[in-house]
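REQUEST ID: PR-0412
SUBMITTED BY: lab tech R.K.
PRIORITY: routine
TASK: structure prediction, single protein chain
INPUT:
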Amino acid sequence: MSRAPATYAVAVAGLGKRGMHHAEAFADNPRFRLVGLCNPGSQRLDAARQKFPDAYASTEVADMLARTRPDVFAFCTPPHIRLPLVRAGVEAGVKLIAYEKPMATSTNEALEISRLLREAGVQSVVSHQHRYGEHYRKVKEIIAGGAIGRVQTVYGHATGWMMHMMTHLIEYVRWYNDYAEAEWVAGQAAGREKFADVHASPDYIAAVIQFANGVRGVIECGAGAPDVPEVEYWWRKCRIGAQGTEGFAEVLTGGGWRAVTRDSQGVISGPGNMEYGHDMPPYVQDIAAWLDDPARIHPCHGESALKGFEIMMAACRSAVRRGKVTLPLGPGEPELAALGNALP
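STATUS: complete
OUTPUT:
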């Protein structure tokens, strides 16, 4: 008789909209038991407790982790609250930490997070879950099948600002380019207004990326990045794709996919929209699969997120230094502070 698959205990910290998306997705999956909830403010915590009455609720992360001893610790907090929660999860002995992008606010912090996780043998997943959209997958299928010929350029742009959107764009262009290593980045930035936001960023940033396979990447984020007039809401105004020797294929986060291929005889297109209710269930299911089998690495694993984060931070360093920056990055002056000081 075959043994029933394991179930994994999950605790979630940060119960805003994204935190509740995670809590709901875990609670709806029979491979997981939602055992813990944490939020520093009582209003959100009380609302989550009413929805998940069987989970232990606390305003303190250390208390929740000590009382619930979860296998998985998921947290959805502002970008500046990363390292302390990763450290808390490692010290609590969790098997996997799942958390929101971007993975850090500086290269120094990202490297320390990676070191902590690696030395403790803790798996990590970062929320680049848009890749589960059928329109994102269709574009990958077209590119991977060779229908646009040899890929020459991968690109992504969004009117949303850097710390909200840029690692999403980088992760998906890396996916469309078969995760080739980035060799160097040249960046430019402008504007200081968004440094006051909780997702502190320049108003606009651009990055040119040279990949080891010869493909060039171009990323733009923020005010001044190309608009996507086909899409209404700013969070969905992302265009990501690849140009090849015989055509192109691209996804609009809130507007489906489109392509011209060697055989299409014109533009072909299809539907698709970023929906958390669609994208979160497979994202969570792949966490269970990775916990079951270490060989089934999650598509959004932390080491991939680190490589994408390095590209973003290299663009910031390049804008400060006014020259190309080679990868991988080592420790240095925190990039956001340096860029904020350098911009007029």
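NOTES: The longest strand covers residues 182-190.
REVIEWED BY: pending
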